[in-house]
Amino acid sequence: MAKRKRKKTNFLFKRGKLQLSGVISLILIFGLVVVLAVQLVPRISFTNNQQSTNLSTKSHQQFIQTIAPYAKEMHQSYGVLPSITIAQAILESDWGTSQLSERYNNYFGMKGTIYQTTKEMKTEEFVNGKWITVTDRFRVYNSWKDSVKDHTMLFVNGTNWNRNQYKNVLTAKNYKTAAQALYTAGYATDPGYPNKLIEIIQSYQLEKYDQ
Predict the structure, then answer these.
(1) Cα 54–chain centre separation
(2) Which one of 122, 179, 188, 190 has the fewest CB atoms closer than 10 angstroms to its CB?
(3) 125 assigned to active site
């Protein structure tokens, strides 16, 4: 007596009949695999030859050369020495590598109060002779140029309580005087702030941009 051929029963077949549910499941699994593969394969960039607008991707010299023309433009319009603008951007953002500059294009530690245009972050302040960690709100910008412009306008317009607070920064004839004026006006709490700016300016010969 001949054996009856056994009908297939598995994921796709049940007693030899193709199961629609199995086919749909297989298609979904295949689609998921394709999606995951696409995500894992490194994406090819077609913007390598375009100038980056993120200063954090640049070397020290590239950082300076990128920001210098706009710093000079601000100087011509408002009077802030380019060497001071560049040195502050370097010091405050650690060459564009700080979280505040990388994420929010804030290169000068500019603070704010409006909830929708600021982010809350921790920072170090020198208070009563010692460094303490405090939480404050910092401004968010669309680009590094917006950050530079806002920084310049702070010196031009002053603060709500003193419109002439940074007058001596604007009228300074050299970077040493301007650096000291910044600290005296209360821009930073660090007593070593002027010397840090001066050291950066001298190390990278930033005074040449003031000519």
Answers:
(1) 7
(2) 122
(3) yes
Q: Is 41 exposed, middle or buried (0-12, 13-18, 19+ CB in 10 A)?
A: exposed
CA atoms within 13 A on the CB side of 133: 2
Q: Which residue has the tokens 């001949």?
A: 2
pLDDT at 40 over 70: no
- Please compute the mean of the pLDDT values over residues 168-195 and round it to a whole number: 95
Burial class of residue 136 (count of CB atoms within 10 Å of its CB; 0-12, 13-18, 19+): middle
- CA nearest 80: which of 6, 184, 168? 168
Q: Which of 73, 136, 150, 190 is catalytic?
A: 150
CB 93 within 8 A of CB 60: no
150 is catalytic: yes
pLDDT digits (tens, 9 = 90+) for 148-180: 999 999 999 999 999 999 999 999 999 999 999
Could you tell me if 95 and 63 are in contact, meaning their C-beta atoms sit under 8 angstroms apart?
yes
Residue 135: other Cβ atoms inside 10 A: 8
